[in-house]
Amino acid sequence: MTVRPASPPLGTPAPAETVLPETVLPPSRSPAAIALRRGLSHGGFLIGAGLVGLIVLVALAAPLVAPHDPYAQDVSRRLIPPIWHAKGTAEHWLGTDKLGRDYLSRLIYGSQISLLIGVSAALISGVIGTTLGVLAGYYGGRVDAVVSYVVTTRLALPVVLVALAMASLVGGSLKVVVLVLGFLLWDRFAVVTRAATRQVRAQDFVAAAKASGFGAGRILGQEILPNILNALIVVATLEMAHAILLEAALSFLGLGVQPPLPSWGLMIAEGKPYMFFQPWVITIPGIALVVLVLGINLLGDGVRDITAPEGRT
Amino acid sequence: MSEPIVQIRNLTLALPRGADRPHAVEDLSLDLMPGKILCVVGESGSGKSMSAYALTGLLPRALRVAGGEIRFEGRDLLRLDERTWRDLRGRRIAMIFQEPMTALNPVMRIGDQIAEMFEAHDLLTPKERRARAVALAGEVGLPNPEQIVRSYPHQLSGGQRQRAMIAMALALEPAVLVADEPTTALDVTTQAQILTLIRDLQTRRNMAVLFITHDFGVVADIADHVAVLQRGRLVESGPAEAVLRRPQAAYTKALLAAVPSLTPPERAPITEAPVALTVTGLAKTYATGGGLFGKPRVVAAVKEVGFDLRRGETLGLVGESGSGKSTTARLAIRLIEPDHGTVRLGSLDFTALGPTALRDERRRIQMIFQDPFASLNPRRTVEQIIAGGPIAHGTPARQARARARELLALVGLPQTAAERYPNAFSGGQRQRIGIARALAMEPDVLVADEAVSALDVSVQAQVLALLEDLKARLGIAMLFITHDLRVAAAICDRIAVMHRGTIVETNRTAALFRAPEHPYTRSLLAAVPGASFTESA
């Protein structure tokens, strides 16, 4: 730090004629508060937030809400139909599977796995993609050329095929699925943050920060990141939904989460032989999957709408 | 006196719910006379553009007609259906817009766009249309009409594009021409030519013109009648001479008083104060295009620019777009790196600093930006914005925040502004925040890049007064970049005129305005709109 000269005299405020009529300020809200206010009148956002919020609550409170142990087998009570069926019982609201495990409990614990995979895959890919995208967008030039090359290379890889190959090479497990998806799904993060960063970088407030002697870290953290956060949240929701569906597909093919873990995709796979006579073993986890993904997508679209540029207050 | 061709009676346009006022335009009555130009003047948000849109049936969907009528050739324009409008627009009522680049179709040749006017109304044969297009191009003063009709909009200059727009508007010989700020995006010398052209064509064809503008200089040059709007209401109207010379309404008087004069006050030369900024031999060239094989196009943006600036002095850097004045500003604060040349701050060679030293020394030269909306980070509070720079340089946060509040008072904003986000402020207020941010660094030199160009004239006068006052009190040296000679006259001690990347003339402000030496300076001064009006006022 350099030695700074004494402050110039500030004593009196500016002369009255320069404070003229403009000094009456309208009520002000933070950008976050404005977004929240818009969110409360956005149907899709409310539905999406409601669905996702409900599933998250259930997943967190699984030991409290689940009526049975999801792993407890009882071969004498196999394939009991759900409660709305003539042969249903109040003990197993959604019936039991081929090993006599309570289907509702498995569904509830399965939500933990889906959310865990969605959130951690989006987190890993988000960190990778955002880092690459922001660096490419901010520095441009050679950095941009290298990142764009890496992104193009990644886009040339078929995700499902690579995931399948990796899972069959290393052997499927929850950890492998999370890592494989995390390292495959970052492309959209990179593309979107790169474009958004370029846009923000061209704004004068970034030039002002540079002129104030801010370092690159501070500029990226304070000036750029907060202004591309909306786009990031939207991409994150899309990739969460994407990861959840891919996990289900991998588990269905036996290369994802391994039994006896109660993954929704695995539940569908295990119900496959019974689908013609006990269709609920497939439709129940299927509907759960659809509801979660729909909720996440609605939430993402909602966030995109309510954080759209100012001027629509 | 002849009958008015358009009569606007008690026009009221309702804004959507939640806007800052219920009506965009309220109870507006105006007459348009054939062969006369009516200028509608007002600041941003006065409803002047909306009244033009109502006259062409192009009102945005969000606006609703809440009352009144517009009589034209026996019909009420507010009650026409879209079919009738399509027939009327272009043929009887034509419009020209502010931004000729976006109003022309970029993938269509100019001649085809003019000919399209006839095509849309099923007039003439294709051959006749082409011939008319060439004739019209000639009439609006486009050079080489036969050739220019075959060019695309991007091959034309801004003034030529506006001429092409005018040719399109005139194609079907409309009775009424609506012009929405048609010269605002143009350089001052081009603006003067376009104004003359509109005036000429209008007399030759006996058209009625509704001319929307915010610039009283333009009004003085072109208007027969003037209507002044404030927040959607008509505050004054009448013959141009009367409104400009003997304004009745207090608002008109205030607006006219805020227009800076072209006879700058004689300012004492500053020769004693130490030199704060010395620029020598600064040069920057840009290479564009070229790609893998082609040869890149090299443009010299700034060529061998040099000047010096003393403490407490304001040097104006004046020029038209593309003259290199903004590049010079950005070179001076090292937002971009020069090809060669030096920038000295006092005895410090600013251009020779390495990255770390540069970050420490940057506080000594600060910038105020043109666009008050893009220059403040929307995600940070005003206090964070102002205190951020000092904190990055190691000032304790508490001290920096206290200082931010002092600076708010200094630039004339209330203390309560500190916790707010930029979206709560108007353009003029945001510019004050930008000034406070620059002052927080306690700079020796302040670079103002078109700092008042985006502001309305009354707000502009306030911000200029603030800058003048700060400079005097804090003894800061100021480099003031502007395209507007009136603004330069109001604030600069000396002016350097830039043309094609070089400084062609530097002189004390009053002397430069009194006796410009370089021909380019003379042509700039001659082109300032409304020169005669403010000279004698």
UniProtKB/TrEMBL annotation, chain A:
This is ABC transporter permease. It is a multi-pass membrane protein. Gene3D superfamilies: MetI-like. Residues 111-300 form the ABC transmembrane type-1 domain. Belongs to the binding-protein-dependent transport system permease family. InterPro entries: BP-dependent_transpt_permease, MetI-like, MetI-like_sf, OppC_N. It is found in: Cell membrane. GO terms for biological process: transmembrane transport. It comes from the Bacteria. Residues 1-12 have a biased composition (Pro residues). Keywords: Cell membrane, Membrane, Transmembrane, Transmembrane helix, Transport. The chain crosses the membrane at residues 45-66, 113-139, 159-186, 228-257, 277-299. One of its GO terms (cellular component) is plasma membrane. PROSITE patterns: ABC_TM1 (PS50928). Residues 1-22 are annotated as: Disordered. Its main location: membrane.
From TrEMBL, chain B:
One of its GO terms (molecular function) is ATP hydrolysis activity. Keywords: ATP-binding, Cell membrane, Membrane, Nucleotide-binding, Transport. It is found in: Cell inner membrane. It is a peripheral membrane protein. CDD domains: ABC_NikE_OppD_transporters. Residues 6-256, 277-525 form the ABC transporter domain. InterPro entries: AAA+_ATPase, ABC_Ni/Peptide_Import, ABC_transporter-like_ATP-bd, ABC_transporter-like_CS, Oligopep_ABC_C, P-loop_NTPase. It comes from the Bacteria. GO terms for biological process: peptide transport; transmembrane transport. GO terms for cellular component: plasma membrane. PANTHER family: DIPEPTIDE TRANSPORT ATP-BINDING PROTEIN DPPD, OLIGOPEPTIDE TRANSPORT ATP-BINDING PROTEIN APPD. Belongs to the ABC transporter superfamily. This is ABC transporter ATP-binding protein. The lineage of its organism: Bacteria, Pseudomonadati, Pseudomonadota, Alphaproteobacteria, Hyphomicrobiales.
